[in-house]
């Protein structure tokens, strides 16, 4: 995919972004672009000097915000930071002229400059992006304002804006991930729900470890979480409000077990598995009225359902053919069609936010893989291989997949990894302790 920045226009509209405000500062067009395609990608060299501290209280924020921006971009594998030790020119002020020749001499292609001011319970961050080889500013500068506690979000928003302008894709840095935090020995793991920034920072625990919890899933708006809990002694689906951390049972039917829930794109309907009498089928439940609907009625095990982004179809795993395979059917039920056709067993299908791919877990010849395929089952690609990789979840822009990886042996640990959909840039998510079952939120408002 190729992006060339459009002709920018000076404008003064203010965009409210959940306690952080974006104000365009200046605009000019520029030809900087990055090619994103299969195979080897040469990372684009960029520089992020420490932002300018415009008053006495902004020094730490100015340094830390620049470092988070650099980490976000370099972590994609699409960008390579030129270290400060190689810089010829400094940045003396936010409005100071850019020494294009000095930055070009060290092969900088994109330069990000910024400034921070701090006063009481408010900090203001502004930035500009420059195309060094064309000698022009690229797109509009933006200004963000928020509380000191939101400084990381503002850094992520700057990185998202830079990423989008250069790649032409939506960003994903200003997002969160809910997951299962694990502790204790492998055969007696304590599990509780936790949520973090996409990069492992700002971990918050949402439940205690008195009951096993599984498979948390964000709502399309990121304000609620579905999960499965054993607090009643049997698996049941619960719906949690993220702000209040209050939960209630959902789709509870006497004598049944419910699990593997997913939101529909409308945020009101939930699809899930219901087990009764040794048989598991797919159902829906309305989160407001509680009305149940049955989607499948087969002697096989149907589970791990997920909606397409337009809400018209559902993908799920079933052993109706004798082994775990991936199927697709209409959102209202009907005859499913099998889309997995390679050797091995397939499970945990998840539809890309772009609608063009389905990610999955594959088990074959004693190895586990995270892979992707087209929605008709064609063009299967395996992105990872290990003792145990499972449970993929998509970044908001459909570019990156996060998943769980467990190491072998009695002391094996679970951790979270991410990988680009090309199979490049496999890397661990830096969090403390064992973790599994990630679910990526949409971009934060």
From TrEMBL:
Would you tell me the Gene Ontology cellular component terms?
A: periplasmic space
The superkingdom listed in its UniProt entry is Bacteria
Q: Which keywords does this Swiss-Prot/TrEMBL entry list? A: Cell cycle, Cell division, Periplasm, Signal
Q: What is its main location?
A: periplasm
Which Pfam families has this protein been placed in? Answer: PD40, TolB_N
Q: Which residues form a coiled coil?
A: none
- Sorted alphabetically, which Gene3D superfamilies does this protein's record hold? TolB, C-terminal domain, TolB, N-terminal domain
- Residue limits of the TolB N-terminal domain? 32-138
Q: Which GO terms describe its biological process?
A: cell division; protein import
Which PANTHER family does the record match to this protein? PROTEIN TOLB (PTHR36842:SF1), PROTEIN TOLB HOMOLOG (PTHR36842)
The family note in this entry says: Belongs to the TolB family.
Its job: Part of the Tol-Pal system, which plays a role in outer membrane invagination during cell division and is important for maintaining outer membrane integrity.
Give the quaternary structure: The Tol-Pal system is composed of five core proteins: the inner membrane proteins TolA, TolQ and TolR, the periplasmic protein TolB and the outer membrane protein Pal. They form a network linking the inner and outer membranes and the peptidoglycan layer.
Q: What is this protein called?
A: Tol-Pal system protein TolB
Traced from the root, the source organism's taxonomic lineage reads:
Bacteria, Pseudomonadati, Pseudomonadota, Alphaproteobacteria, Rhodobacterales
